[in-house]
What does this fold into?
Amino acid sequence: MQRRTLLKLAALSTISLARAQATARPQPTLSTHDTELITMDDVIIIGGSFAGLAGALQLGRARRKVTVLDIGLPRNRFAGHSHGLLGHDHKPPLDILAEARQQLARYPTIKLVSAR
It folds into this structure.
């Protein structure tokens, strides 16, 4: 059997299996209250510290709908000041995060959500 034929058969069986599973499961019904809470995002970021907010900024600039889930306890919260972050050297990390959140507020497609 040729590789191409094998790949076609694998793809067809995967599609058939997915269709069978989708039709076999009962679809959940949503109450009116539940549907009000449903939104569609392009990206959900878990963690609202430096990396999470930087990712959200780039995605927001690209007009993607982004939700950032954060519990508000960054790993460096005990540090007195940051080191090596260009433009922010020796600033307290919580001040940097506050400034980053203000910058993200300009983008209507970015939503910050407390995950507590």
